Amino acid sequence: MSMEKPxxxxxxxxxxxxxxxxMGVGVSWHKLAGAVMxxxxxxxxxxxxxxxxxxxxxLDGDPDGYMREALRSFPDQDIADQxxxxxxxxxxxxxxxPYKTVPVFNANSRGLALNLNMVGAFVxxxxxxxxxxQKTDRPGPVGxxxxxxxxxxxxxxxxxxxxxxxxxxxxxxxxxxxxxxxxETLALGERASIRxxxxxxxxxxxxxxxxxxxxxxxxRGPLNIPRxxxxxxxxxxxxxxxxxxxxxxxxxxxxxxxxxHNAPPRDKSGYGNRDIVNLDxxxxxxxxxxxWLAGGYGSPEMLTRAKENGANGIQVGTAFxxxxxxxxxxxxxxxxxxxxxCNGVEIKTDMLASPTGFPFKVAQLAETISDDQVxxxxxxxxxxxxxxxxxxxxxSDNGAETIGYRCAAEPQEDxxxxxxNIVATIGCACLCNGLLATIGxxxxxxxxxxxxxxxxxxxxTETIRRIVGRYSVHFSAKDVISFLRSxxxxx
Length: 491
Known about the structure:
By secondary structure, this protein is an alpha/beta fold. Helices cover about 30% and strands about 15% of the residues. Helix 1 packs parallel to helix 5 (about 110-135), helix 5 packs parallel to helix 6 and helix 12 crosses helix 16 (about 460-470).
């Protein structure tokens, strides 16, 4: 269908001094993002595993009614009703009842898998905007964070977020060179595609998403194109993306002290000077692009330093992670704050925990997956599949490659039978299930629950102690913004 060319969103990101980090699975949720936006900063929702998060909140009865309210605003009510009918359980499921399963993504996913993921992203963005607008007439922008390495859900999540009017897309954990072009393609209602990485392939593989498959588009005009910020950790990647025919709108320059997935160290001995981005090169880009600094920048003195070094501001995750507005399970939040204020919490860069192969920051807390014994005792299962690796497992009669899927966190014998190296499974954790448990949505299995995995930046203890000392253990996202913009600087 013919559409007029869309225009960029009107928001000016260069005026944004603070970007709230897009943390994990549902830690950066609508309530946190909305509270941050109300203070004129950029709130960010996590688009990772958006479908299962929506499904499990509905299965828990959606006690505050937010999920159902957002579903009523989704443009295609047939899809919204399909999801509500399948997953909403009035009064919620019994405490020990397992969550109903959701479709596992693959390269050819259609129907419910795409719909649930698309609507999950829509719900988070729509609710963040609604919450912010209730607090102020001039909210900051809303962004959505996705991992480049999680390829199969990307396009449907982007489209769902765009339907809700997302202002900015933020992506790291890979090289998101084809995303800016696809945002424009999706805005026009045209078929979008991104490269699909398949281990052992000699052929080119693509993932596609076509908005024309959805009837509500027939009477819609073009969508706005969100800004795009690439999360990068090297000058080489900045240069490559800047020279792209469709460059990003700006960069988040992330250091190795940031929480979540980190870029691998450039030296086998560990992180060092080679992992520090030369900011002089960033400021000399022609044409210039705005940038924000992340990883250990969650303090007022670091906000000042970032601006002195030419940055527009900072991206902060850890401080918001521990606030009352985050999606973190409340009991786990209390435990983390108590540990941080009393004894301190060690943060370990775990080179083995993530099936993606990227280093992953893990907070060392009892009764979480950071405990080696807890990790070993967990029965291996891969039933969400977002971090699976696609690989060639044969050829069809016409010579086309057939694709299989494996995950280093699945049962070892299954992984090896699919051609995987057993070494990759040693120490590997199931991030999908662990991160859902971190926000109180862990699966129940045979009377036991999935165990959380907590990720945070290296400065967790110092940050929490400073903010708690100023505001109390019940600090909010608003308090974090006030702290970051304050004169409470340390030498």
